[in-house]
Each structure stands twice: as structure tokens, then as C-alpha cells.
From TrEMBL:
Source organism of the structure: Alkalispirochaeta americana
Protein name, as recorded: tRNA modification GTPase MnmE
Residues given in the record as GTP binding sites: 235-240, 254-260, 279-282, 342-345, 360-362
UniProt keyword list: Cytoplasm, GTP-binding, Hydrolase, Magnesium, Metal-binding, Nucleotide-binding, Potassium, tRNA processing
First-level EC class: hydrolase
Taxonomic lineage from the root: Bacteria, Pseudomonadati, Spirochaetota, Spirochaetia, Spirochaetales
One Pfam family here: TrmE_N
Boundaries of every TrmE-type G domain copy: 225-379
Amino-acid positions noted as binding Mg(2+) in the UniProt annotation, renumbered to this chain: 239, 260
Positions contributing to K(+) binding: 235, 254, 256, 259
Domain of life: Bacteria
Alphabetical list of Gene3D superfamilies matching this protein: P-loop containing nucleotide triphosphate hydrolases (3.40.50.300), Probable tRNA modification gtpase trme, domain 1 (3.30.1360.120), tRNA modification GTPase MnmE domain 2 (1.20.120.430)
Length: 458
């Protein structure tokens, strides 16, 4: 990875900001000092574009200056420093969404003084220009990768500065406390012998930090989601339940055991949690080669699953080897599973054993309690209040925990009546960690690590 991306701040950069594919429009983003003139020189109206005020759109033809060939008839968005996303001069090209067309335009830009933007480089520049703090910059990528409306809403809140505000509030309180300590260090003669540190206030800040850190489990859940697999013996009704959950006729259902030969995957939104759900080949001892491979692949899916819905055909009942399998899974706790008693609509259905959820994939009876249980099982213990921000960055969580640990040291220091200057070091450590979250204090390595995770063009 490019580790000196920050030192190339003045380069002209360009990237496609939309997916490469056939579409109504495609957006190519460019940024850097002089980029307006550089793009203008590639059009049929260079003078007018070079004089174009910021925040305006102009229609133009893009031409290859060497051959005079027209590459596209497009709209050009002009932004003038510092009033742009990056804080630099910037130009956006709204072209026709043609794959070869877009590729030709990018190639022209790369021959004309632009280089390909690194992942996240536009947002990195916005951060370096002081347009956004690091939590908002991270939120930009979190918005792009959100998979449910809920995840998207939480990320939008972070872009709006919900995490930045909260972290700065904690930091300001600590800076106040630090100021009190500094005063005491400056005027030791006025020392009362009593350290003017409000332990209660410090504890309160520490709890707030830990609560925000703990919100990561919820943030991660809404962002990354969970994997749920349907398992059970052949004919239990896995594919029927899969179709019922997806509300579409996706998997083949038949009364022939072994209908599903390989796993099938789909996506669902379970109360805002993005779910990847797998229907698998039914489990049974078999000598048949093809099915044996299907079962091997079922094993792989089950291992990777966060939660397994284990289906039993309630008409047939539990097989002996099945009871053993469930007992073992229960004892080891892995993979976590919910036992489901299917075909409850059938008059011949046996009463469900203790702990089983009776359902019918056919009539959908019993689905509600089952789905509630699924959501309950995948939701982390920590449920945050609706208004409080939820973080989705491991980096931010680690720094919050580091700040909280430093405050614990402060508390210990006060209790053990350590010298004030020693205690102040831990307060400073906490302030420093919070400053790293917002990017107030940071290093090139940290920035590289953060922006590497971005899309190109963001
Ligand atoms: N065409 C386009 N759409 C976009 C973006 C973009 O960069 N370009 N965005 C990118 O993610 C998002 C919007 N975010 C943006 C943030 C700041 C500025 C900007 O130019 N800010 C200037 C001027 C503000 C103004 O004129 O009112 C500034 O902050 O000074 C633009 C978009 C989503 N939609
Ligand atoms: N009465 C009743 N029949 C069901 C129900 N669910 C599934 N079936 C029937 O059971 C048979 C097997 O269903 P599938 O969904 O294909 O079962 P499976 O577990 O995917 O089977 P394999 O892919 O072979 O492992 C089909 O004939 C379904 O119509 C149910 O809730 N009630
Ligand atoms: Mg099946």
C-alpha cells in the first residue's frame, strides 16, 4: 500500500465514483489544485469552463486534444477551493454510463496530468483540509457499505457528527480536569493537601466511554450482519422454510429426500440486521458420492454460521443419531442453534419436544415466535438507547477502551494518593486517545490504515 499518500497531497487525482457498468450516468471525480483548468483544456469550451464559478454545472464535449475525437457529451460540475468536498479545486464529470466510454475518459485524464486516486483519497483530503474529523470520514465508508436501512441510518448519524460530538464532550470535560491539575501544579504553595479531582465525575466519564465502546457490538451487527444456516435431515422442510423466509420461490422443494444438493445463499433484512441465509443439503449417512460432497459443503456452511436453525420433520420425529447430534451441539454451544419442529400443520405431527419451536413452512404458523427468537439470539446483550450514537469502527472502540483504562488508573492514583503529576499523565493519556479517535492527533500510519478500507472514488 502507498504509505506516502499524504505527501502527494498536491497531485491531481481522478477516479470513477460509480460502479463500472452500463448505467444512465457515471460520475468521475477529480480533485487537486489546477484541476479545473486541466479538465477545461480537454473540452470544446476551455475558456468558459476555466472561468466557471464554483458550485456550477456546465455542459461540454470532452475531446482528446491529440486526435480531436469527441469522447462524450457530458455535464461538468465545478467546485472551487475551499468550497468543495475535498477542500481543493474539484471537477465532477457526469458522463454517459458506458463501460468503454468511461474507461476512455479515465485513460484520457491519466494521460493529461491526473493519476488514479487511491482508495479513500478524496475523503482523506477532506480530512486533511479540516472539512471532516476522522469519525465522519470513517462514516462516509460506513454509509457506502451499509446493507440495511437501520445500518444506513446509524452511519448517517455518524456522518452528521454524533460520535464526534460525544467524544469531544468527554474530551472537553477531561481538559477541564487537566486545567485544574495544571493550576495546582503551578501553585503548589496553595496546596490544600487535597487533590481537587472529582472522582465521581471521572467515573461518570469512564462509564460513558465504556458505553460508547460497547455500542460497537451493535454497530458491527447492523453493519456486517449475521450468517444463518438451515440444517436438518433430508425432507425436514429446510428449502420450504428458506422460501417462506425469503417470501419467494427460490429453492427447489420436493418430497424426494436429497433434493437440495448444494447450499443456496440469499440475503434478508431481519429487523434492520443484514442476514445472509443458507439453505443446505440434508444431513444423512450416505454412500452416494455427489450427495457426500453436498453434505461436506453443508458442514462448511454450518461451521461458519452465527446461528443454525435445526429443522426436524415433526411427522417423522427425532432420529436417534439426530438426538445425539443435537445433544453434542448443545453441550459444545457451537454452532449456536435453534431447534425447529416443522410440519406443525400436519395432523400426524407429533408433539414437539421441550425447547423446540413448532412451525409450519407451509401455513407459516409459528413463524412469529421463531423470528423473534432469531432476532433475540443474534442481538448482542448491549441494547443502546435510540438517541445515543453507535460506533462501527474497531479502531474507535479500542481507543475508547484505552481512554477508559487510563481513567481507571487515574481513579487508582487518587485512591492511593499518588502525586498529582503522576495522575495527570494518565488523564493526558485518556485525552490523547480521544484525540486520536477524531483525528486531532494522528499519524500517517493510522490514516493509511483507515483510508485503505475505503472504495476508490470515495
Ligand atoms: N456530486 C456529488 N454528490 C455527492 C457528493 C459529492 O462529492 N459529489 N458527496 C460526497 O461524498 C456527498 C455529499 N457530500 C458533500 C459534502 C461537501 C460538498 C461540498 O462541496 N462542500 C463545500 C461546498 C458546500 C456548498 O457549496 O454549500 C464546502 O464544504 O465548502 C459536496 C458534497 C453525496 N453526494
Ligand atoms: N405438511 C407440511 N409439509 C411440508 C412442510 N414443509 C415442507 N413440507 C414438505 O416436505 C417435503 C420436503 O420439503 P423440502 O423443503 O424440500 O425439504 P428439505 O429439508 O429441503 O429436503 P432436502 O433438500 O432433501 O434435504 C416437501 O414435500 C414439502 O412440501 C410443512 O410445514 N408442512
Ligand atoms: Mg432442500
Amino acid at each position: 500500500m502507498n504509505s506516502n499518500i499524504i505527501s502527494q497531497e498536491n497531485d491531481l487525482i481522478a477516479a470513477l465514483a460509480t460502479p463500472l457498468g452500463s448505467s444512465a450516468l457515471a460520475v468521475i471525480r477529480t480533485s487537486g489544485p489546477g484541476c479545473i483548468e486541466a479538465v477545461a483544456a480537454l473540452t470544446d469550451r476551455p475558456a468558459s469552463l476555466a472561468r466557471c464559478p464554483g458550485g456550477r454545472l456546465r455542459r461540454a464535449q470532452l475531446r482528446d486534444p491529440e486526435t480531436g475525437r469527441v469522447l462524450d457529451d457530458l455535464m461538468v460540475g465545478v467546485f472551487r477551493a475551499p468550497r468543495s468536498y475535498t477542500g481543493e479545486d474539484a471537477v465532477e464529470l457526469f458522463c454517459h454510463g458506458s463501460v468503454p466510454g468511461v474507461q476512455e475518459i479515465l485513460a484520457l485524464l491519466f494521460r493529461s496530468g491526473f493519476r488514479r486516486a487511491e482508495p479513500g483519497e478524496f475523503t482523506l483530503r477532506a480530512f486533511l483540509a479540516g472539512k471532516v474529523d476522522l469519525t465522519r470520514a470513517e462514516a462516509v465508508q460506513e454509509i457506502v457499505s451499509a446493507r440495511t436501512a437501520r445500518g444506513h441510518g446509524l452511519a448517517l448519524g455518524r456522518l452528521g457528527g454524533s460520535v464526534e460530538a460525544e467524544v469531544n464532550r468527554f474530551k472537553d470535560e477531561l481538559v477541564q480536569i487537566m486545567a485544574g491539575i495544571a493550576l495546582q501544579l503551578d501553585y503548589p504553595e496553595e496546596e490544600t493537601g487535597q487533590i481537587p479531582l472529582d472522582r465521581q465525575a471521572l467515573r461518570h466519564i469512564r462509564e460513558g466511554l465504556l458505553q460508547l465502546a460497547a455500542s460497537y457490538s451493535a454497530g458491527k451487527l447492523y453493519q456486517e450482519g449475521v450468517v444463518i444456516a438451515l440444517a436438518g435431515r433430508t425432507n425436514a422442510g429446510k428449502s420450504s422454510l428458506f422460501n417462506a423466509l425469503l417470501k419467494e420461490d427460490r429453492a427447489i422443494v420436493s418430497d424426494i429426500p436429497g433434493t437440495t444438493r448444494d447450499y443456496i445463499e440469499s440475503s434478508l433484512d431481519f429487523g434492520g440486521i443484514p442476514v445472509r441465509i443458507f439453505d443446505t443439503a440434508g444431513l444423512r449417512e450416505t454412500g452416494e458420492i455427489l450427495e457426500g460432497e453436498g453434505i461436506r459443503r453443508t458442514g462448511q456452511v454450518l461451521e461458519a454460521a452465527d446461528l443454525v436453525l435445526y429443522l426436524v420433520d415433526g411427522v417423522r420425529g427425532l432420529a436417534e443419531e439426530e438426538e445425539d447430534r443435537l445433544d453434542r451441539a448443545k453441550a459444545s454451544g457451537s454452532p449456536p442453534f435453534i431447534p425447529v419442529w416443522n410440519k406443525a400443520d400436519d395432523r400426524a405431527c407429533l408433539p414437539p419436544p421441550e425447547g423446540f419451536f413448532p412451525v409450519s413452512a407451509r401455513t407459516l404458523q409459528g413463524m412469529e415466535p421463531l423470528l423473534e427468537e432469531v432476532v433475540r439470539r443474534v442481538t448482542p446483550e448491549h441494547r443502546c438507547q435510540e438517541e445515543s450514537p453507535v460506533i462501527d469502527s474497531l479502531r474507535q472502540r479500542d481507543l475508547l477502551e484505552r481512554a477508559a483504562a487510563a481513567l481507571q488508573e487515574v481513579d487508582r492514583g487518587i485512591q492511593e494518593e499518588m502525586p498529582v503529576d503522576a495522575i495527570s499523565l494518565d488523564v493526558q493519556e485518556a485525552i490523547h486517545a480521544l484525540g486520536e479517535i477524531t483525528g486531532e492527533v494522528t499519524s500517517a500510519d493510522i490514516l493509511d490504515a483507515v483510508f485503505q478500507q475505503f472504495c476508490v472514488g470515495k
